[in-house]
Amino acid sequence: GGTLRLYLRELLGRRLGLVDERQLQQLISKQGKEDKRPQPHKEIKRTPMREVIALLIQNPQYVSMVPDLTSVRDLPIPGLSLFVDVLDKC
Questions:
Q1: How confident is the chain (90 residues) per 10-residue block, as mean pLDDT?
Q2: Mind listing the GO molecular function terms for this protein (predicted)?
Q3: Tell me, what DSSP letter sits at residue 66?
Q4: Between helices 48-58 and 80-89, what is the axis angle to 10°?
């Protein structure tokens, strides 16, 4: 396997006019990088806040179940500002 691969690489290098093995290696490496498969999409992390926002969007009648949020509106909770915006729209 290794001898045949080496022979084929040398033959390819000669046919392409590349006398240096490193030039051929660089060409092969560049081709491999371009042909990479695209990365699969990462699944969105399901956090409790995202779940609550999704439930509220799907069921606007739940807005009556949400208590007053004036005391927590300014807390640095991820997604809270979006949640409050959705509440205001419902």
A1: 79 78 76 62 86 93 91 89 90
A2: nucleotidyltransferase activity
A3: S
A4: 10
User: Alpha-carbon distance 80 to 50, whole Å?
Assistant: 10
Q: How far is CA 20 from the centre of its chain?
A: 39
3-class SS of residue 63: helix
- Measured CA to CA, the distance from residue 32 to residue 52 in angstroms comes to 44
Residue type, position 5, single letter? R
Closest CA to 23 of 33, 36, 34, 10: 10
pLDDT number for residue 8: 82
